[in-house]
Amino acid sequence: MPFKASILTLYPDMFPGHLGLALAGRALERGDWGIEAVQIRDFAEDKHRSVDDTPSGGGAGMVLRPDVLARAIDSIADDGRPRLLMSPRGRPLTQERVRQLAAGEGVVIVCGRFEGVDQRVIDARQLEEVSIGDYILSGGEPAALTLLDAVVRILPGVMGNQLSGVHESFEGGLLEHPQYTRPQVFEGREIPEVLTSGNHAAIEKWRHEQAVKLTRERRPDLLPDQPVTK
Ligand code: SAH
């Protein structure tokens, strides 16, 4: 069974978005993965088809109603796929979680809007809150597309050159080494000599050293075993 994403959203037209293009788009056409966007509003039952209401206790904005959202979630067969809620309060997304998700059957993703989602539906449907970073988006849709982008590109057969997944940032707990390509000289700057030496052992060593150096400078938090000097 290919990986399947079911997205609950008030803006189904945002999907597949950029994932309908390039390598992910070709893989989608081939059926290597699948996506369905479910309109939450279709599960509203009052005559105005309202999906939101004012926050209990007062305050600005609107909150997604738990009953409408629960019906939308329940319309998707519970086949064991993880049910995620895109949320700035969630656990920050990591490449490790992306790999776990890509190894599974797929995902169900709830996209919040307004001030967010009634807490009771998060609890009752055991939604796993996932954040894509410490900033606030206007809705969960771009966050869902970001998560799916990261997952889909590592699904079997999606990336042309499978090897290019191996040395990337985070995969070995390090940021990636700098990359170069022709021309040999760009505005007076040369490609580091070792990279054009043909000495593969030396190239590997240089790349590893560069990766460690960059990670130490920019993301010492990724090097838990190394003493960090501040
Ligand atoms: N009032 C909320 C923010 C609501 S933003 C708060 O302060 O926590 C509206 C919706 O956008 C959220 O329900 C969520 O689905 C999505 N969203 C916003 N920022 C996000 C982030 N950093 N990661 C994932 N989803 C996010």
Oligomer: single chain
Question: What do the pLDDT scores average to?
Answer: 95
CATH architecture of the largest domain: 3-Layer(aba) Sandwich
Distinct ligands, ions and cofactors found in the model: S-adenosyl-L-homocysteine
User: Share of helix among residues?
Assistant: 25-40%
DSSP strand count: 9
Please summarize the sheet with the most strands: 5 strands, parallel
Q: Number of folding domains?
A: 2
For CATH, the homologous superfamily of the largest domain is named as: SPOUT methyltransferase, trefoil knot domain
The 3D shape can be described as: elongated
Distance between the termini: 49 Å
Beta-strand content bin: 15-25%
CA radius of gyration is 22 Å
Strand order of the largest sheet: 2-1-6-5-7
- Count the helices. How many? 6
Explain what this protein looks like in three dimensions.
By secondary structure, the chain is an alpha/beta fold. The chain has 2 domains: 3-152, SPOUT methyltransferase, trefoil knot domain (Alpha/beta knot); 167-222, Trp Operon Repressor, Chain A. It is 27% helix and 18% strand. The chain has 6 helices and 9 strands. It has a 5-stranded parallel beta sheet, sandwiched between helices. It is elongated, with a radius of gyration of 22 Å. Bound molecules: S-adenosyl-L-homocysteine (SAH). The site of S-adenosyl-L-homocysteine has 19 residues, from strand 5. Keywords: Cytoplasm, Methyltransferase, S-adenosyl-L-methionine, Transferase, tRNA processing. Residues 4-223 form the tRNA methyltransferase TRMD/TRM10-type domain.
